[in-house]
Amino acid sequence: xxxxxxxxHGWSFLHRIPAMEDTRKIIIIHxxxxxxxxxxxxxxxxxxxxxxxxxxxxxxxxTMQWKLKDLLDHMVLEDAQMKAMNQKKTC
Length: 91
Prior knowledge:
Largest sheet: 2 strands, antiparallel
Strand order of the largest sheet: 1-2
Number of helices: 2
Order of helices and strands: EEEHEH
Radius of gyration: 14 Å
Strand content: 15-25%
């Protein structure tokens, strides 16, 4: 598993999350405009109850070079970081 070094609120940490063992849904979107991405996300969440808490991501030139497992690991980590930041904001 690839380790990720991240900076979060001035703190640096090394974190490993095994995405393949994670049960969350991840939807990867490629080749759509920003407006289309938003429409796809809304449509998926409206049509599929399981997509309500899914992780959505769009590809970038950098991520197009990654192995799928590395992208999934990265998305799980990024989702955890975003949830932690949002939780701090509400406290």
